[in-house]
Amino acid sequence: MKLRKGNIMTPEAERVFLEQRINSNHNKSIGWKRICIPVDNSEQSEMAIDLGVRLARHFNYTVSGIHVFNSELHRKRFRALLPYLPERFRTRITEKMEKQHDAIMDISFKHLGEEFLDVLRLKGERCGIEFESEIIDGNPAKEIEKYVNRDGCDLVMMGSYGQGKSPRIGGCARKVARRIWKDIILVRDEIKEDVKIVVAIDGSDFSFSALRKAFLLADWLKAELLAISVYDPDLHVTIFESIKKVLNFQGEKLFNSKEQENLHNEVVDKGIRKVYESALKRAESIALEMGMEIRTEVRAGIAFQKIIEFAQSEGASFLVFSRFGLHKSFDSDIGSVAENLLVESPCNVLCCS
Fold this sequence. Notes:
By secondary structure, the chain is of the alpha/beta class. It has two domains: 24-190, HUPs (Rossmann fold), CATH 3.40.50.620; 191-353, Rossmann fold. It is 55% helix and 18% strand. It is built from 13 helices and twelve strands. It has a ten-stranded mixed sheet, with helices on both faces. Helix 13 links the parallel strand 11 (318-322) and strand 12. The relative contact order is 0.13.
């Protein structure tokens, strides 16, 4: 494989070089090899196709296109409608006609799926991208989940909502994001000039893994990278006040609540801030080792709210975060902060598993 054309690195060489730089320092592979793009002909789906093709072309990734239609849902709705049809139509519909209707609709759905996927295929072919596709009949979220987990896609890229045009996130996108254990990009807007990428850091290994993938996006999009870390001092105040309320007089005397409160305010709150500041210092160190720049900021408040406020104030094109953070529980499919960011983010998101 030729890694260079003259003095210019090929896209494949850029990807390999960047991954080697990151892996040499962190011993973790962050690159994606295969992108799955579910399509449904919505505006956000079109944006996901354009962004996915750009990413695949730049790094020489393989693209898998998938369209899922739900014939069973259509059959149920059609049969639910029959009793409300005018009598002259209702009396003419026989069981044979119902079966013919179902067969015609199945064929129509498949042809529509082929047309939707042709948009992705043609754009991919023009860029020389290796492409495959599949049309599936079933529940969209469930079938996308099965396809991704079965076929080993590294990254799912899809619109944040589909034909239903939900205000923030569609039901299918939300379910897929919760159920798959792969990285997912939910597309809300087109990528414009002066790109900024905000990555949320809480000091967990998960968040630093997300940071490394944010480096990949920043390198590709020539974007400014910003990291934010948020701590919640009010949570500890609330817990402290709860302890005081449940103590009886003797217990409070032993607890010495006034002295403990002063200690809490002077030491604990400041100490918590320093913990999150140290996480950002580590992020800066990683960026320095990578030969990349990163701007950091720590804020106090509710994590997902402050992260969203920061992304909005900076006009971010991407918000990058990890599926889990410091408080990951064994049986959880996604952390509460990550889920809130998926729903409320004002821009495109990359949720990293």
